[in-house]
């Protein structure tokens, strides 16, 4: 009923290809955007900004980058954490070499550094596939983290080997560094993420996205119908690493404030991969749903016992938290092996024909 | 839709949490960022038990500090910097008087925020050594001693009172490849250049803590005169067992205070005889403070310690107790100065920088002989309490030196230089102009 499509006629091909063939989808998205741009900034506290909203957005963006490579182009990658690191260190170097640089420009530029390195490590994908490629990207993971530790120039030879974000303002608003208000950082992240998501949706719907899907489903067949595999695969690595690099720059500059090389080690790669898989490979929405489940839910759960006044020690709460999230992941994957996005798609289909299933 | 429901639930829980926490104002909120889970739990747990039990003892014995109960809440980080951010924001929203980050990585994240959020940060004998400079780091404290102090004291002790005696020697530095492990390197390098010994840093990655065969192979090949260890968690136990396995002479193996950890040495028992560590605390289970904890907390069943495993008598547990002794003393000083038992963050900051724990005061607190005297000022946030060399005799640690003190003429200029560098990198960085020196 809510999703009744009766009466929404498409009289042209253009209307049929529109981003939202069903009007209710557009309304839902508009509602979410209003929530994100208006309601949250007016109601959220600093705690909510810094531990829920900003990290969810940044992790969603990183998962989106990985999803383009793994979900759309079918190239399994375990190097996400390291590529995020490349973005972060590139942004750090840009901002320390050119202190007057606009932060947005620096963030968007650091994506290109990550993209170039992503393409370099994507070259093996022309010859190897599947698990073997995953091992090749694992090499990138270990090599890059090692480089972050050993190459003093990257962290300006600081004694601790960590990078620290200085205060950075644009037009009088501070966006990065210790004095930046959380709401500014939130808007910065939100705008960047919205922009990149918009580009990604259109990229995956169009000619390039179809090429990627063809390569994913069967690369020999794709080659036979005239798709240049090298171009398609390397472009997927380029776009994916670009987005991951931007996410990495945001991760350190707009959220953490400081980072050491170990932060970008393999657990981060796995975390992003889990978000992409649980959210749903080959979908854009899934990244957001996955990030809410993996990033935000543990924070919320850990606040519950204290809010209810239960006398649990923090270590017990932490253990419970791990168990609950683990159980939820298994539950969701049993209910719908294709991820949360698919779960939503099924629910939407049912809503469209409800209450007359035939 | 799902997103919406999740969001509604989320804001509801947060709101509920906030409204509850706003009620109780008549306690001293001194939270701790603990890690009783994860790869570093082995060293984290006894220290945090010690901290917690001393505060519980004050609540039980004296009804808190000057009549105000202490809320020593823990927030579990698992030594994970991401959870550190979460804990910091959570504790801040609950009105924490102090941040105890318990990790150099979290310290680095929180340090720049201290000036903005105006919550003092207390990292007893860890964190950034340059925090000693109170003029630059107005809100950060690392009393009773810093890593650079520790490095200087170890070198003086190895050179029998004078680092110059180490001329021509080779000293390996086995450290965790992490901001914490790299912290003392500038000091060692400066000493090596001045006194002509070879300094050989050997990093141990976080993933190879339990398997250090490559590092010990290098040590066997290089045959250093001394190995200095800057390890944490599972790394120390790994290093000690490897040292025994490769038959490295134990009396040439020295650790910073975190290596004075009984369970690590119990693994090797008599084979570990001769192993030394620099420790700013020493165990005395008969000391009045420990007896009070035993009576009011441990015997009353309010402690989480492993009694059968001898945790009560361990260096780590009693070090944790002393950390809380220092913090509680700062609260007392702050209360006296402010004239009210309900202090705020600014007043606690004053207390932390006006600590004067001389021998008489240490005796009053019942911790005589457990730690050295210390005195913090506006310009010196470390207090430089000094430390002892302790040696493993096969069953327990024994004091084998007088109270050592660090070479101030060496460290102070380095502190100033590093603090200036930090302030420049984080400009605009406010300095505390009230400090004259």
From TrEMBL, chain A:
Compartments where found: Cell membrane
Q: How does it sit in the membrane?
A: Multi-pass membrane protein
Keyword terms, alphabetized: Cell membrane, Membrane, Transmembrane, Transmembrane helix
Q: Give the InterPro entries listed for this entry.
A: ABC_transp_permease, LivM-like
Q: CDD domains given for it?
A: TM_PBP1_LivM_like
PANTHER family this protein is in?
A: ABC TRANSPORTER PERMEASE PROTEIN (PTHR30482:SF5), HIGH-AFFINITY BRANCHED-CHAIN AMINO ACID TRANSPORT SYSTEM PERMEASE (PTHR30482)
Q: Under which name does UniProt file this protein?
A: Branched-chain amino acid ABC transporter permease
Q: Which organism is this protein's natural source?
A: Neoaquamicrobium sediminum
